[in-house]
Write a structure and sequence with these properties.
3 domains, two-stranded parallel sheet, extended
């Protein structure tokens, strides 16, 4: 895991040194893809398991599209490429999930990040006091909830 992170940092530093800049619509998905790949290696039991997971994630034969789409002429050719059509096990319709993801992505893209929020709050001491009070209540609730276990902590699995 550390090796992959180091390799990605070397690539990043090399791009900066060569003054290579990518547009935001390319750099954001590329960064997410790199993080996603690192997560696979972080969670896998060993290197070969990670490679098997990545192979399964990129295998076109694992793609399943809604069965209603087979009736659409332009999608029918996809079955010849090995893409399956069937019932999707989703919590909601595919279009509603895509809309929700787009809305969440838009909100995350346009909202200010925590350092910007804190710099704005520093100019308003009263708002900073309110934030400190809310965070104090969250901290107290967290401390009082320590004994209540919903599920085991992720890292206990290692």
């Amino acid at each position: 895991m550390g090796g992959i992170h180091g390799l990605l940092l070397m690539i990043n530093h090399q791009w900066r040194r060569l003054k290579i800049t990518l547009p935001a619509f390319v750099s954001w998905p590329l960064t997410f893809l790199c993080v996603l790949i690192c997560w696979v290696f972080f969670r896998a039991d060993n290197f070969s398991s990670a490679i098997a997971i990545l192979a399964a994630m990129t295998d076109i034969h694992n793609v399943v599209l809604p069965s209603e789409w087979i009736a659409i002429d332009r999608f029918a050719i996809l079955s010849d490429l090995g893409i399956c059509f069937g019932k999707l096990a989703l919590a909601g319709s595919l279009s509603s999930i895509c809309v929700k993801l787009l809305v969440i992505g838009f909100i995350l893209a346009v909202c200010p990040n925590p350092p910007i929020i804190l710099s704005r709050l520093q100019t308003h001491p009263r708002r900073l006091q309110v934030l400190a009070g809310v965070l104090g209540l969250v901290f107290a609730f967290t401390i009082l909830s320590i004994g209540h276990v919903e599920s085991e902590f992720l890292y206990f699995q290692f």
